[in-house]
Amino acid sequence: MTTLTLAKTQADAPPAAKALPLGRAVNQALHDAMEHDPRVLVMGEDVGRLGGVFRITDGLQREFGEERVMDTPLAESGIVGTAIGLALRGYRPVVEIQFDGFVFPGYDQIVTQLAKMHARSLGTVRLPVVIRIPYGGGIGAVEHHSESPEALFAHVAGLKVVSPANASDAYWMLRQAIESDDPVIFFEPKRRYYEKGEVDPAPVRPLHTARVVREGRDATLLGYGPTVKTCLDSAAEAERDGRRLEVVDLRSVSPLDFDTVEASVRRTGRLVVVHEAPVFFGAGAEIAARITERCFHHLEAPVLRVGGYHAPYPPSRLEDEYLPGLDRVLHAVDRAMSF
How far from 78 is each of 158, 273, 298, CA to CA, in Å? Predict the structure, then answer.
């Protein structure tokens, strides 16, 4: 597991005791990483002068210059390929993909080159590339702007896949990802960009560990990225009916911290996995299979999954019906409790 090894100087830490929107925490992490290490570069479509379509890289080019914050052509394959070349020359590139659905022209480079070069070189070559991808729905956008393709990357050996759910994790997980010598796909829940939270003064856990964000006894709700808030809201609503639901933030999709999930399920006996991606062949399927193997004699009900449907992302007026919400999560809890 990768941990942050930065010296804990005042310059390395985010502003103390200050609530930041999640998107601003990402910006601060990029700024501090670039300030700490001159090898860190930021590149992508409109990341420089415009500051990105979500303004996540706003101000970075003004401070660090065009050679370290680079506007690129609209060519994701070329962007990722250039980042691989820069990493081979000793840099630590951070690539921004404008929207989740735009990553696929670069998927070949990611899968056939970025993910495999370390193994292909028998461990002599490392590619410390971070690929930031705003993902998920909830912003009233159309297909190619609202999808959740994390399972397509988690399936690829050689890639690490993570997704923060709050401002503190957005800051520290990105700093840890940039420090990692492995390629990291960093999925940012765009619908949570403007939600504020306190940023811890130091990283509190390794990059690829899950955490319990609400303790309970009756069932475990497991989410990551945008659905952690969905799970927390569902748990708060369920408490009105006398049910205490435990909520676990997975944080890392690959590798998966099954130990933390298993410990929670052993306490509660039930598990509901929630993600925006389609349930069919999604991350929840792997989690359900592994937890069933590891906790078979502790489960009081089958592991249930709540997610998107096996269909192309719908028009914005229908996305509330497509995305997992409070009603669908609580219905799954009712089903789990009925066994």
Answer: 20, 36, 49
